[in-house]
Amino acid sequence: MRDKKCAMIETAFLAEEIEYTGAELRSHFVRERSGIEWDGVIAFVGPCGVAGERLVDLEDAEEQHEIISKRMLHFIAEQFQQPLREGNVRLRLFATIVKETLEEMSPGIEIKRDGDDLFVNDRKLTVAICTSSPLSTLFHYGININPAGAPVAAVGLKKFDVDPKRFGLAVLDRYERECESIERALRKVRGVS
Amino acid sequence: MRDKKCAMIETAFLAEEIEYTGAELRSHFVRERSGIEWDGVIAFVGPCGVAGERLVDLEDAEEQHEIISKRMLHFIAEQFQQPLREGNVRLRLFATIVKETLEEMSPGIEIKRDGDDLFVNDRKLTVAICTSSPLSTLFHYGININPAGAPVAAVGLKKFDVDPKRFGLAVLDRYERECESIERALRKVRGVS
Amino acid sequence: MRDKKCAMIETAFLAEEIEYTGAELRSHFVRERSGIEWDGVIAFVGPCGVAGERLVDLEDAEEQHEIISKRMLHFIAEQFQQPLREGNVRLRLFATIVKETLEEMSPGIEIKRDGDDLFVNDRKLTVAICTSSPLSTLFHYGININPAGAPVAAVGLKKFDVDPKRFGLAVLDRYERECESIERALRKVRGVS
Amino acid sequence: MRDKKCAMIETAFLAEEIEYTGAELRSHFVRERSGIEWDGVIAFVGPCGVAGERLVDLEDAEEQHEIISKRMLHFIAEQFQQPLREGNVRLRLFATIVKETLEEMSPGIEIKRDGDDLFVNDRKLTVAICTSSPLSTLFHYGININPAGAPVAAVGLKKFDVDPKRFGLAVLDRYERECESIERALRKVRGVS
Amino acid sequence: MRDKKCAMIETAFLAEEIEYTGAELRSHFVRERSGIEWDGVIAFVGPCGVAGERLVDLEDAEEQHEIISKRMLHFIAEQFQQPLREGNVRLRLFATIVKETLEEMSPGIEIKRDGDDLFVNDRKLTVAICTSSPLSTLFHYGININPAGAPVAAVGLKKFDVDPKRFGLAVLDRYERECESIERALRKVRGVS
Amino acid sequence: MRDKKCAMIETAFLAEEIEYTGAELRSHFVRERSGIEWDGVIAFVGPCGVAGERLVDLEDAEEQHEIISKRMLHFIAEQFQQPLREGNVRLRLFATIVKETLEEMSPGIEIKRDGDDLFVNDRKLTVAICTSSPLSTLFHYGININPAGAPVAAVGLKKFDVDPKRFGLAVLDRYERECESIERALRKVRGVS
After folding, report:
1. Which residues from C are below 8 Å from A28, CB to CB?
2. Half-sphere exposure of residue B52, counting CA atoms within 13 Å on the CB side?
């Protein structure tokens, strides 16, 4: 039985396009769209428009920001029975994986990470948020493809000739392997005094 | 990616016989003997002799009991980052699975469960204990094959013509599926007010 | 002070009949109906009809199932500050207790457990679900008395001449003792390395 | 079943005198001396002498302090599966209960609390520490009866004509009721948004 | 870097008066009114009137109590990712701090603590409640200044010539230091066996 | 009080050189060497030689590896009451910070991250491990300065003309800010359904 695969999360890249309005960041959206019955991350392409009550980030809400982008590659993750603190650390690791994957697919690009956000030449590439539902921790990670409409200086994957689907699949695969290797890491150590 | 198997635990039935002395109930014994790098349960056959300092159960230790059985089917489970309270509830579910499996393999047998112990005609069939290591929750579940030497009235699988290996594999398989279905169950409900 | 009873849960069998519609699976319903101010389980008799938004089980909701039974013995449990994973393991132990109690009260009956469900001759005897409120873990366990109206092949206690009240009290008593003995079990072991 | 007593902890005042050397602050000491099989607090009278490796408080150990008192009223508590942070908050509540009880038994006394320590006229009345075993959180609370030998200015119950046993029983009773009322408090509130 | 201040909570005394209606006991009220982006406690002065659905305490709600006071000193605390049980223990420690501070500012006063409530000559000085939001544990602690309108025998700070602002600042400062010293305490102990 | 600094961790760069033998990965080593009484990370320079029982990584121990490097920049972190799973996610974020800092200090360098390890041109730059003590989660992160003696192809900071102290201080500062910003992030979001 040794070669059985023990996976922590399942992933799926959705064929359909979906507009991200903020309402999608809720428990079981991943399940409903992908059929995943486990901790999971889905990726899909679509416009982004979040405002008002749907802004989960209070800083944004307080300053009446809107999050707008003509076309984005979206990731939504749901991990059950996971503390929000751990979820936020994972989100930053996810940001790192996005950065590393883009660096490989677009050699020579210079990306800066600031917390969970990525910038290229001081232009914002991403939006990110992590929150709790009553049953799980969820995050949204959005990467501009075409950032038209964004209220700040922004940039997108299109500019770097990166195919969103190929890119999305690579990120999903890396995050899945990262989560699994974390589980192996915590099971292969001695405790200390 | 939908048909990937998401497993919570791996299991293995060991070919070699091992004497259970109590010292085996420690972190990473499962890994060392089976190569499982994940939460896991192993089963093996061997004599049982636990006394003195190796008695994890303080009631036994206080009354200077010894746990002796000429030949037992042993299970050792290790599940990481799991609270001891949950581990004890799981152990009772494991006892239930042992009972159900034996009822199927030996039709007509009448087994009584008392907590994590099983009895046939008031004779003790099993020993069980759940404890913590610094990194995990562990349990030992021992089922008499030939209970010779036991300090109490006891009975074993031999008497019911049940093959230890076939039986052990069936229990491992059921527990693995039970653990996985618990994970699915907690991910498919709405929260309530 | 040694003989003081340390209880983890209180239980009550309600005199009144109550229809179970799904809305009863919420925090403090146990308290409101029984006055229990502690972790508790109540039992009562009444019809069952759950549909639409009140289906806590997403599999049922997705497939637009309805849960209908003319007369059921219901159990609702609320345990505070308990993780949902542990709650689901407990629910399966509760299913085991229901099975064991019925086997004793109706000798010769053959009951199959599949997760938290019980079947007699492939007919469904029970419905079960475990979920979270913001403050607690809750479960509903319904046992058909007269399953008329059930959308699947079903069977009830009436067929086995089992008195719902006597049965319900026996289950409550066993679950209460099981919960208490789990608490004792986790306090009487040595840790291991 | 409504009037059943739901207790969180059991308590016992030991008849024998025991010297407190620091070695008593370990898992299951409460059980061994009192037979309590639950979360528990014991009280007893005896000298106090803690030095070297047995100093659990690193500040004391670093400065090579010794904790000496000719005669103390000792409390040792063990609460299982309790986080150390919560245990430290409880210890301060215990200090408060000691203070309140002494204020009632010795009217006019002026006691200052500083964290988990109590002082009368700048003289140290108590020593206190909270730590973890692999299975539980433990605390020791020592109240000078006769502080002879203490390395700092100290004072004891004897000076206030307070009977250690009557005092100890009153503190045990209050802490037991406080722990129980905390459990009731967390079960009688609505969650908020 | 040694002298950097490591704080667990921030505190603020608000200049404006705010009526406490119960609706203020929700996540991020502290942030909205004070700009605190961390665990925090705010204090402010204002009338108190809580009834109906806004009664978080089910005992009050069941008995259709109203909480009324003409003028109170209010404290609202929000601590994130904190279990409700720990929050309730902290609330009692907060009650102790209120009591100790008032004893110092009003020498000779005799205050009785009963759980999280304070009484002077059997008159109620305070109201208190601790509950959970989806992201945090919150408490409200209200101290009568002028208890006119209270449905029970009550008393307020005015009677003792205690200035609410000076008093509030002293309580905030003590609670902040108490929380910090708890964090230091749990980091300076050896574990035991 | 708004501009008070709320820090999660303290950091220190030690003036003395220390050989890392594995024994340093224990609770309170950070405190003993730096006086930090809080969650903390220390950095220091010294040789590295870990073998046998001191190998916390069981994979290394099973294969009788030795970890040797003539001169390394070491980091040891201790964070109390932190689950090991979260600790492992943080360690990977720490690896990311090391990578980002080195990319900035040595423009043009190409670093690959694989879990918590970093490589330059397939040469190993780092060693890393995260484990639990009874009271905390600890990690060691070692970065070769001069990798002489390493049993695998390795590379060090010296080759890139990076000053270990300047580099270490930059990493400490970034990790401290990252930890703090994670705490702010989890306090500034609305929960979702």
Report:
1. 58
2. 3
Residue of C53, C181, C184, C192 to mutate, testing the B interface (most B Cβ within 10 Å of its Cβ)? C192
Closest CA to D84 of C151, C55, E188, C176: E188
C68-89 average pLDDT score? 97
With a cut of 50, say whether residue D160 has pLDDT above it: yes
Structure tokens at F185: 């992030």
Q: Residues in chain F with pLDDT < 50?
A: 1-4
Q: What is the DSSP letter of E14?
A: -
Residue B64, CB-side half-sphere exposure with 13 Å CA sphere: 0
ipTM of this complex prediction, to 2 decimal places: 0.94
Instruction: Establish how many alpha carbons lie within 13 A of residue E27's alpha carbon, considering only the half-sphere containing its beta carbon.
Output: 21
CB contacts, 8 Å: E134 with chain A: 132, 134
Measure the CA–CA gap between E27 and E137, rounded to whole angstroms: 8
Q: Are E125 and E154 in contact (CB under 8 A)?
A: yes
Report A:85-104 residues touching E (Cβ under 8 A): 85
For A168, E191, F55, F108, F190, the CA distances from A107, given in Å and listed in that order, are: 17, 50, 38, 12, 38
- pTM for the model: 0.95
Count of C-beta atoms within a 10 Å radius of residue B64: 9
Q: What is the pLDDT of residue B3?
A: 41
Contact indicator for F128, F116 with CB cutoff of 8 Å: yes
Please report residues of D whose CB lies closer than 8 A to that of B58: 28, 31
CB F14 within 8 A of CB F22: no
How far away is chain C from the Cα of B41, in angstroms, using its nearest Cα? Answer: 17
C-alpha distances (whole Å) from D93 to each of D99, D114, D182, E93 are: 10, 12, 11, 6
Could you give the 3-state DSSP secondary structure of residue D34? Answer: helix
- What's chain A's length in residues? 193
3-state DSSP call for residue C54?
helix
Query: Do residue C135 and residue E132 have CB atoms under 8 angstroms apart?
Result: yes
What residues of D are in contact with residue F30 (Cβ under 8 Å)?
Answer: none
Strand partners, D13: D43
pLDDT by residue for chain E (193 residues), tens only, comes to 334 455 689 999 999 999 999 999 999 999 999 999 999 999 999 999 999 889 999 999 888 889 999 999 999 999 999 999 999 999 999 999 999 999 999 999 999 999 999 999 999 999 999 999 999 999 999 999 999 999 999 999 999 999 999 999 999 999 999 999 999 999 999 999 9
Q: Report the relative pairing of strands E126-132 and B117-120 from DSSP bridges.
A: unpaired
- Which residues pair with residue A120 across a beta bridge? A111, A123
Taking CA–CA distances from A186, the nearest residue in chain B reads B80
How far is residue C186's CA from residue C177's CA, in Å, rounded to a whole number?
14
**How many angstroms away from the CA of B162 is the closest CA of chain F?**
37
Give the CA radius of gyration of chain D.
17
A5: which residues sit within 8 A by CB, 6+ positions away? B4, B5, B7
Q: Which residue of A has its CA nearest to E134?
A: A134
If we measure between CA atoms, which residue out of E83, E117, E106, E116 comes closest to residue E160? E106
Nearest Cα residue to A133 out of A28, A15, A37, A45? A28
Give percent of chain C with pLDDT exceeding 90: 90
**Distance between CA E113 and CA A168 in Å, rounded?**
60
| Kind plus residue range of the DSSP H or E element containing D145 | strand D136-146
Q: Does A115 touch chain E (CB under 8 A)?
A: no
Q: Which of E92, E131, E189 is closest, CB to CB, to D56?
A: E189
Task: Flag whether residue D134 sits within 8 Å of chain F, measured between CB atoms.
Answer: yes
Number of Cβ pairs closer than 8 Å across B and D?
A: 11
Among A83, F7, A117, F64, CA closest to E80 = A83
E residues 36-75 closer than 8 Å to A (CB): none
Closest to D60 in 3D by CA, of D120, D140, D136, D137: D140
